[in-house]
Amino acid sequence: MMEDSKKQRRSGFASVFEAKAIRNPFTSEYSIFCLTILYFIALTPFTPGLASAENAANIFSNMLPLLIVALGQTVVLITGGIDLSVTSTIALSSVIGAMMMTGEQGLLGGSRWAAPAAVIAMLLAGAVIGLFNGAAITLFRMPAFIVTLTTMMFASGLAIWLTESKSIYNLPASFNSIGKGSLFIVPNALIVAVLVALALHVALTQTLFGRWLYATGHNAKAAEVSGVRVERTVRLAYVISGLCAATASILYTGRMETGSPVLGQRILLDVIGASVIGGTSLFGGKGKVIWTISGVLFITLTDNSLNMLGLSYFFIMMVKGAVILLAALLDAWRNRLFVRS
Amino acid sequence: MSRAILEYNKIEKSFYGVRVLRGVSFVLEEGHILGLVGENGAGKSTLMNILGGVIPFDAGRMVLGGEEYKPRGPADACAHGVAFIHQELNLFTNLSVAENIFITDFPRRRKWWTAGLPLISRREMKSRARPLLESLDLGVEPETLVENMRVGERQLVEIAKALSIEAKIIILDEPTTSLTTRETERLFDLLERLRAQGVSMIYISHNLGDVLRICDDIVVLRDGEVVGAGLKSEFTEERMIALMVGRTLDQLFPRREGEISREAVLDVVGLSQPGVIEEISFRLRKGEVLGVAGLMGAGRTELARALFGLDPTERGEVLIDGKPVPPAPHGRIRSGMAFLTEDRREEGLMMEAGISDNVALASLPSFLHEGVRSIAGFLKQKEITTAISRVTERVQVRGAADLRQAVNTLSGGNQQKVVLSRWLLDNPSVFILDEPTRGIDVGAKSEIYRIINELAARGAGVLLISSEIEELIGLCDRILVMAGGRITDCVERADFDRERILRSALGGMSKWESA
């Protein structure tokens, strides 16, 4: 009896494995990572400087803040929602932080507590925006799309109004070093990104929150019937997304040494696109930290390589749009496969 | 002399190997109203869905107006003059009356400059709808939105739709359940007028009094077979009930060991939500299987949802082991309650997720590491895995090579076992099972019966909601009968009697309607 079931299990594993290998490589978990490497190898001979250490550093520094935002977005996408307000969160948070610590006129300008206080305030701004999104979505059962779209408009407007559309310079060096400096040879931004990615990976795989998050995305009704605190889970997801956006804002603001009310306005498509390219489903229930890292790597590399080939910004936009559309198509196609089986 | 307009001849239908119709034959005469009665699951709806072209039949033949009839779909049935008025009306409530009537065949504009363009002529739509509505004495304008109308009026819109296609046969499925007494009278007047005009109708209802009043002929179905057919004058309510239930018990139900304790595990006192359930009070003891019988719409599922905290209640108390329970489902789960929903797909399972994720779902909080016992807490992953494989072995979930396999690859019976497993992990003391055997085959059914018996033998209290009286009689120690949101009877095992249960389920309904 025991033997029998063991045998059955083994053959089961084997068949699952075979099925995976035979199936289209696009549906495999790490397909995007492999694709990225292939793309890199294929383009290296035609693109002088693509494989240089200098460029690799460039790719990483471009990728890190984007990665942090995309990870937050992934958490929200797993619930079946979407967070469009991340770019405005970056801008507003940047402005708030900069206004607090800039040179002499800032709220705490010159004080040695300026940088830590500003960091806390920036994170708080992200958390508050996330909490607002989450609360509006769960309490009033409004669609995430419209809630976060309006939050985006509001936060963006607020950032511009606060600064009268001017950038804020003269930030403390201790603050700028978070985004620019490095510990020995490791960039600080990399440390922050790795910490965020690790924390989210653990949260998604090891905690009650993680299980509840996937359950909510798969079937919120069934989750509720099974005692999952669906509303609490969704709210927390948006708070995490807001916090991630604020963290990215700290890195961006430090790197540019500027508080800008239009910071990060162009990255929204990259953020959602990277998650979806990685394999996170827009229908909810699926998504992993490692997938999103692959997605971000892919989109950054595309950006960088096309740039080095001397193509215009607009052409790169067109290519990226096409790639993201393809990824979304793949997602819809995978979902249909599931429904059919 | 009337002639046959529709003839069923030895119609057979099986779903997943279960025979639902076993050679059904009867005749509908032109200009007659035929009453079709039978218990839930007797095959009435299947029979009508076949006539309405919703599902195909396996064998036998149908003759409609002298010609062989085999509808390819609802639209084809419509073209043959068969109109189906479903119990849950099939109207688009956001559209107007006229739009609903002509939804499948909007009149086009026919001026020379619009010829060939897909433009709807609202004027013609209105002018054609108006006489139809007048003939039904329905005093509303064709532009009225359906959502602004009462249920009784909506029913008449469905009939107007049937008349617009010049239906020869109209099927009415439980048309009076949501109507007031006056609306029912109006509907009956209308049906009699239509009959005088030569329209034939099939009238399905659990309200036997109505059937005897309005119908000319009566057909009684039981287990997919015709067990009685004839003129109305040959039937009484008593005889119909006897025919509907007259059947012997199968050996499907193993008798369980173990005593019922005198201790109550669940007490429900005066639970009410106006219009849904009224003054529900009962006591469930340890080791007891308490059945809940009733017809569709009697409030059984609503009671289950209220007990589990999914739907609000205005008054009343729910106590487990004498202590009041918290309001929301997660709180009730913590107090030891488990709930198996009747809608497995929508509310029970995450269809694309794996078996283990589905099984673990409800008991995750009890696998938290000490320390942080909140949403941010860490889970004991290994213990979860062991517990899951133990419980899925106990209920014998089959058809999976690996516990990560998605549940949508399993059969209905095994899916149901996955849902059951979910609730076994934490050893709850109260199980609320809403139609646990719906849509699963006989083999899986008997396994689920075995699990229910096992639960009771271990001292849990089980509240079993079922539409199959056999199941209740076979498994339960007591049966509550519900009708119109109230408990109308409570039958002890020694007094189990199909006729009494059915009468309480029916009797309560007519009492409720006249009130």
How would you characterize the overall build of this protein?
The complex is a heterodimer of chains A (341) and B (515). Chain A has a domain at 62-264. Helix content of chain A is 74%, strand content 1%. Chain A has helices at 2-22, 31-43, 53-78, 86-101, 114-139, 144-163, 173-180, 188-206, 208-218, 220-225, 230-256, 268-278, 289-308, 313-340, and strands at 182-183, 186-187. In chain A, a hairpin with a 2-residue loop joins strand 1 (182-183) and strand 2. Chain A starts with a helix and ends with a helix. With 515 residues, chain B is α/β, with parallel strands linked by helices. Chain B folds into three domains: 4-245, P-loop containing nucleotide triphosphate hydrolases (Rossmann fold); 250-336 and 428-515, P-loop containing nucleotide triphosphate hydrolases (Rossmann fold); 352-427, no CATH class. Chain B has a six-stranded mixed beta sheet, sandwiched between helices. Chain A binds chain B through residues 8-9, 11-13, 15-16, 203, 206-209, 211-212, 214-215, 218-219, 221-229, 232-233, 236, 285, 338, 341, and chain B through 308, 310, 329-330, 333-334, 339, 341, 346-353, 357, 360-362, 364-365, 368, 374-379, 381, 400-402, 405-406, 408-409, 422.
